Each structure stands twice: as C-alpha cells, then as structure tokens.
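Quarterly update from the structural biology core.
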Amino acid sequence: MSLRRKELGRRTRRILLAAGVATVATPLGLAVALTGADAVRKRRTTDERSVPPHEPLPAEVDGNELTTYTYGEHLFEDMLAAIDEANDYVYLVTYIWKADDVGRRFKDAVIRAADRGVTVCVVFDGFANLVVPSEFKKFPDNVQLLKFPTIRSGLVVNVRRTGRDHRKVLVVDGKVGFVGGYNIGAMYENKWRDTHVRVRGVAVWELQNTFVDFWNRHSKRHQQPLEDTGSPVWNSRILAARNEPSRLVFPVRGIYLEAIDRAMHHIWITQGYFIPDREILSGLLAAAKRGVDIRVLMPEASNHVVADWVARSHFGTLLRGGVRIFLYQDVMVHAKTATVDGTWTTVGTANIDRLSLIGNYEVNLEIHDRGQAAQMERIFERDLTNARELTLDEWEERGVFSRMAEWILEPLHPLL
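Predicted structure, tokenized:
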C-alpha cells in the first residue's frame, strides 16, 4: 500500500510538473510563432509609407516655451541644432541609437561638442542596442559614456535591479530640453508617428534633474558626478514624473490614475502599446460609467506583434464599458501621451503597460495648461483622420482562432 501511494505521488508530481510546463510553454510557444511569422511578413513587405510632415505646435506654459513635435525630421534637426549651439554641457539619453545616417549625425554632433570643450554625457541602454555594431558604440574619451548594462547582478532576486533605461531626453546648457517617444534613427524621421516636446525656460530643470540623478546613481567610479542644483521654481505647472526602479519609485502610473480619477469630460490617450493594469482599467471603466468621453488611439499593428495580441485581451471589457478604441492605420504610432478635460496633459517615454509603469526607467512631463492641452487635442483629432474605430459589434464577430490566441497569450500580460 505504501509503495502504491509513493508511485501515485510520483505520478501526480509528474502530471503537475507537465501541466506547469505546458502552462508556461504554450503562451511562450505561441508568442515565438507569432513573432517569427511577423518577421517573415516584414521582410516580404516593402514599406514606403510615411507620416504627414506636420509643423511643430507652440504653447507658452507658466513662462516656459513648449514645442510639440509629431514629425521626426523636424525634431532631429532642432535637437542637432541645440547640440551644435551648446557652450557648457550636453546631456543625452536614448533607449535606441541606430548606426545609420541619423545615428551618425547625432554621434558626430556630440563629438564635435566635446572637441570644443563642452561637457558631454551620453547614456544608452545596452540591451536595446545589442544589434548595433560595437564599433558604433565606441566614443572618444572626451565624451563621457554610460552604457546601461545589458545584464546586471541581482536581476532575478532584487527588484531594484530590474528594468531597462527606456528614457529619451536631451538637455543643453540648462536652457533647452527635449523629451518624448522618439528614439534616434533614420526610420523615426518619417516612418513612425511619435510625439516629443521641447522645453525652453526654467522648467528645463525637470528634465536636467532627471538626467543628473540617474547619472550620479549609476555612473562609473572614474566618472565625475554632475552638479545637483535643486529646483529654481516650486509649484510649477510643468513637472517631471520619473520612474526609478533602483529607488522603487513609479510616479508615472500615479499621475495617470489621478488624472483618470479627476476626469469629468474627456480622456484622450495615444499609446504605442496599451496594456492597462487592473487599477488603470478599473479607473477608465469608472470614468466611462460617469459619462466621460474616453478614446484610446493605438496602432492597428505595432512593431511588437505579441504586445498587440496581449492588448486584445482587454478590448472586449473596454468596449462593453463604453471606452472607444481607434486603430491607427498604415504606420506605427509610438507616442506616449494623454490629455484630460482640456487642462491636463502628459508627454513622455512611458507606455501604459507593466514594463513602463512598474518596471523601466521612464520620464513623463505632467503639464497643467489649457493652451498645451488644446494643442494635444488638435494633434489627437488630426490623428483620428488616419484611424478607424473598432466597434463592439466587429470585435464580437472575430473568429475562433483570434479568441483562442488571446486566451493563450493573456498570461503574458505581467511580462509586457
């Protein structure tokens, strides 16, 4: 009897182990298959599509000049001009820095600045640039370089060691700062629809302090710390929300939850990857229930096919709850923006997904200003002309394969 019980116990453990492996392997296997099929599709497709070259939109906020960019070529020209005009320092951090014509222009610009005596500090993420040639990632000694490590010790057991450096920030001389969704590369000049803002005025400190704090915490021993000046202005209408895993601080999620909770009229969100957690999803549904006009704009097909499929697991709940979903056509929309009630706006680097909101190093500007909100609404309405609305009727008519794929991939939600 004892032997039978032992054999039964061994069989049970084997069954449970097999079930556990299948539970993990099934969604991962499907994710790999989808990624492979999407890669083949992309190789077979010649993509000549581009985004409209809309001019940057200005606004004055609390004595600061804001400029909002939706066309990469315009943004890159102004960023390069700012670097070339630098007299004191250049702080640049980017998630992706491609080794193409645009990437080389930026590399040449920061080297020129360093050669004329400007302090140049550059940060890029090691993992995001694994495929970039190693030679391109080498800089002269007069450029202070911080490659955020691809793999860090303690990654598995210490939550403070998780997260990528997903920020895209440029600060020059404390006078001008840029932040938003644009990485550095030729494809972002006119093939992706993204959003960046430029700040001129005392609010540049918000972005500068973001860079300084990160540099002083993560730079190497041989690299000099940067000056931490303290804020010149309190109660500003432009504030930086900075996610910092090393400090277990994730305020970007908080500003979204607060804005959604306060909304009375409308919430218009543009996201490259929209995978809301339970609290954000509940907040949006509660706002819709009280009559708030909620619209979410995202790509019909993003550059990450698995993220698209995982996002679909929430579509039914959102649509039945009164949230309207618009799918941007033909090109990738990569912006990370929202505007609420014609008053509140955020533009930055964080997506509404787990990786950005409670994982990566991110920075979003939180802006309280009707003028800037009006410009963001103008951009949103313009984007809707290149989007189609996904209706509940269409969603409920989707096929069996789609439903099964969504169900299988839904467990990957916490990983994206």
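The first strand starts at residue 57 and ends at 61.
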